[in-house]
Amino acid sequence: MTHATPGSESVATKLDIVQQVVDLAGEHLAGEPALENARVIAERSADRLRLSRGFTTIALAGTTGSGKSSMFNAFTTIDRSPAGILRPTTSEPYACVWGSLTYADELLDWLGVSSRRRFTRESALDANDEAGLRGMILLDLPDVDSVEPRHRAEVDRLLHLVDVVVWICDPQKYGDQLVHEGYLRQLASQRDGLIVALNQTDKLQPAQLPKVGADLRQLLDDGGLGKVPLVPTSATGDVPALPTSKRGPIKPKPGPFVTERSTRGYPGVAVLRALLEPVILRGTVAEEAVDRDLTATLADFAKLVGNPVTPPSINSLVRGLASAGTDAARVEQSVQAFAASAAAGLPGPWARAVETAARSRLGELPAALSQAVAYADAQRPRRAWLPGAKKRADARTETILRAEIDKVALRYVVEPVRRALTAYERTRTTLT
Ligand SMILES: Nc1nc2c(ncn2[C@@H]2O[C@H](COP(=O)(O)OP(=O)(O)O)[C@@H](O)[C@H]2O)c(=O)[nH]1
Ligand SMILES: [Mg+2]
Predict the structure, then answer these.
(1) Is residue 361's pLDDT more than 90?
(2) Region Disordered: what ranges (predicted)?
(3) What's the CA-to-centroid distance between 85 and ligand 1, angstroms?
(4) Which residue owns the Cα nearest ligand 1 atom 9?
(5) Is residue 69 located within the same domain as residue 208?
(6) Which of 229, 262, 282 is the last residue before a domain boundary?
(7) What pLDDT is recorded for position 150?
(8) 237 ligand 1 Cβ < 6 A
(9) Per the structure, how many domains does the chain have?
(10) How far apart, in Å, are the Cα atoms of 154 and each of 45, 61, 370, 401?
(11) Which of 11, 62, 162, 348 has its CA 20 to 30 A from that of 173?
């Protein structure tokens, strides 16, 4: 199979190639990070493509108290996800489906959202006031900085599975190193669907907002997240009155970070929603994320392929084993030399796989070689007193012994190595 340039095939073809490589190389490259990673990605991609593509999963993530649950409530407009004061932590994700729960069931099972924590906005869709969000599954995630390792593990797991992440920051902790280095940079490199919300902007004086906003924007830009949208929000809708002067309320200067103080509450949430609607409508973000994962995996495979195999000569192995006799150290030396010649020129992981294969039955070799000697001896004619008969008997025994050692070498060393080399060659043809 050939593929012209990375990224030129369909997502299904890429998945097929990744799965083939995992199947071909899996047994030989166990523990190799590129392959272990590929195995996880292949499984996840196959699952996501199989599960309803009619839904876009959007996670609200961030540190404790930033307003994830409040944002969830602002979107669902009904108090379903317990906000901070009542329940200081959200230990498990909540999900709200803008559409039929029945159709979303399998996807929610896969995400691991318990059935008690699933809600629907189907009726709101019927009334058409939220039709633009049809197909959205919004998730309220546990805190990334939770003191409970279990909660953090849950967030990390989910962040790999969802299609879009809306990262909620607050004015106190927006510069958190854990957030920028531990999460945002990685997320941005993995997906296109990332939006950052600077929440609780109502707690800032109007004059402070542009400064804090610009500061966060700078942090994002510095981390290579220049393309990631930043939206100022207030999830609770508690918009304090604008400070007044003698001439009436002071209006904040217009600028990119000035929240539109919606009279309907939830300033900025409308902006967030306006960013999400076209993504949900397009409905391709899940496939795009899968495609991106697979493309990166295929690029990662580059280090697993290189020169074609030069079949190693087995003569020197047989000679080495014949002269080593039952000396285990010399047997090992011969095997090692054979492994080195078989692995020559192969990429590191495969060279190691070939060596492992060559040594896989090393422990059985001395006994097998003794048996070969005993067998050859047993074939020696017992009465060799005629002139020249001893010489002929020796030669015959030697031939039999060679043939026996040949068999031992093939069975215990060469065949395991050939299996690894064949897997390598197949992997190479699959990828080039
Ligand atoms: N003033 C204000 N308070 C907020 C805002 N968002 C959340 N809060 C409050 O901050 C606290 C933590 O919010 P919560 O949604 O539980 O945060 P979570 O831990 O990220 O889920 C609660 O008391 C919320 O009422 C906001 O935009 N403005
Ligand atoms: Mg919460």
Answers:
(1) yes
(2) 236-256
(3) 9
(4) 67
(5) yes
(6) 282
(7) 87
(8) no
(9) 2
(10) 19, 11, 57, 62
(11) 162
- Is the CB of 79 within 6 Å of ligand 1? no
Write out the residue range of the structural domain in which residue 143 sits.
Answer: 54-282
**Which atom of ligand 1 is nearest to 233's Cα?**
27
State the average pLDDT over residues 280-300.
Answer: 92
Residue with tokens 């690894």: 420
CA 43–ligand 2 middle distance (angstroms): 30
Alpha-carbon distance of 31 to 54, in angstroms, equals 36
Q: What local confidence, expressed as pLDDT, does residue 269 receive? A: 85
Q: Is the same domain home to 110 and 230?
A: yes
Please check whether residues 278 and 322 belong to one and the same domain: no
Amino acid identity, position 52 = S
CA torsion, ordered 80, 86, 88, 91, to nearest 10 deg: -40
Asked if 108 and 236 sit in the same domain, the reply is yes
Q: Is residue 334 part of a domain?
A: yes
* Most confident by average pLDDT, 236-240, 261-265, 414-418: 414-418
Name residues with Cβ closer than 5 Å to ligand 2, which is an ion. 68-69, 90
Same domain, 116 and 176: yes
Instruction: State the pLDDT at residue 238.
Output: 57
Report the interhelical angle of 101-111 vs 149-161 (nearest 10°).
120
Task: Give the pLDDT score at 130.
Answer: 79
- In the predicted structure, residue 309 carries a pLDDT above the cut 70: yes
Query: Could you say which of 282, 305, 326 is where a domain stops?
Result: 282
